[in-house]
Design goal:
The chain has a single domain, classed as Deoxyribonuclease I, Chain A. Helices cover 17% and strands 28% of the residues. The protein contains 4 helices and 15 strands. A 6-stranded mixed sheet has the order 3-6-2-1-15-14. Strands 7-9-10-11-13-12 form a 6-stranded mixed sheet, covered by helices on one side. It has a 3-stranded antiparallel sheet with strand order 5-4-8, with no helix packed on it. Strand 14 and strand 15 form a beta hairpin. Helix 2 crosses helix 3. The chain is globular, with a radius of gyration of 18 Å.
Length: 307
């Protein structure tokens, strides 16, 4: 069935994108601006593990822009991305990291470098053609393997599941991946939503509303969920507000949601938009936005009281 038409403005970097050479300079300038801007905000600076709250679980979400053929060639090397990932775990204290646009080989390298105890689960992106055949998306270099989304954690993961969600009839299929952090009894769900216009058979169909409903439907009172939602917040004047489920900001709170009525948040993409989110019903203890200098996305880090 045809979906309601969406706004065909790309605000994220999930599908093949058209970059121009000046983006590298603009990205560097914006990263510097974000760092300066965040430095004066509470909870915005890097917090060492020693500052964490007892019983706290810190979760990060980051689109690595690791799939180089998706116009990510100017966002840093694999080594730089791995260093940024390690910084999220060590300096920012993230015990769980939800990743989008990550290569399986780089994920394995990160797990190895972080040391014993770190685990991961991975979901491959797939391209579906007009005949219904699906092909796994592979990263540019053979050693990197498949491209997909992942959950990386410093303790065992259980109850791993892919949440069924509507995906393009013809085109790139992303998805929703959930797992439970056994040490804290907290479920985490990592989503990467479909950009408007991504269905090559039906470019006017909108999928994000159904995908957001599937994401919320998978959550409970001990879930942290979010990821790269490829959507602007449902703030006043937003033409995408209708895609957001009613309970998203009411039954749950977003990392950067300051009040019950707030529907905004700090920039997480170098185009100047917020497209990355973390929601939970658990008490929040921390929220920061971290410039990694190794992606066109910034990382979002949230602490929750899980004890």
């Amino acid at each position: 069935m045809p979906r309601r038409p969406g706004i065909l403005t790309k605000v994220s970097a999930a599908a093949p994108r058209s970059r121009t050479p000046w983006l590298t300079l603009m990205a560097a300038a914006l990263v510097a601006l974000v760092v300066v801007t965040l430095s004066g905000r509470p909870g915005a600076t890097h917090a060492p593990l020693s500052d964490s709250v007892p019983g706290e679980l810190r979760i990060a979400t980051w689109n690595m822009c690791d799939v180089r053929q998706w116009n990510c060639q100017d966002t840093g090397s694999s080594r730089q991305k791995l260093q940024a990932l390690k910084r999220l775990a060590t300096v920012d204290g993230a015990q769980v990291i939800m990743l989008q646009e990550v290569c399986a080989g780089d994920l394995a390298s990160a797990r190895k470098e972080l040391g014993n105890g770190w685990r991961s689960t991975f979901r491959t992106y797939a391209y579906r053609d007009a005949r219904g055949r699906q092909t796994e998306v592979r990263c540019a270099e053979r050693r990197q393997g498949q491209a997909g989304l992942a959950i990386l954690a410093s303790s065992p993961l259980s109850r791993v599941a892919v949440v069924p969600s509507r995906q393009p009839a013809v085109g790139l299929r992303r998805g929703i991946l959930c797992a439970t952090v056994a040490s804290h009894g907290v479920q985490v769900c990592n989503a990467h939503l479909t950009l408007p216009g991504s269905d090559r058979a039906h470019p006017d169909w909108e999928y994000r509303d159904d995908q957001l409903s599937s994401l919320v439907g998978a959550a409970d009172s001990r879930t942290v969920f979010g990821g790269d939602l490829n959507s602007a917040p449902p703030s006043a004047g937003s033409q995408d507000s209708w895609i957001w489920p009613y309970d998203m900001y009411r039954g749950y709170r977003e990392c950067d949601q300051e009040t019950a009525s707030s529907r905004s948040g700090r920039v997480t993409h170098l185009t100047g938009h917020k497209v990355d989110y973390l929601f939970t019903a658990l008490p929040r203890t921390h929220c920061s936005v971290q410039a990694t200098a190794a992606s066109d996305h910034l990382a979002l880090v949230m602490g929750v009281r899980a004890g």
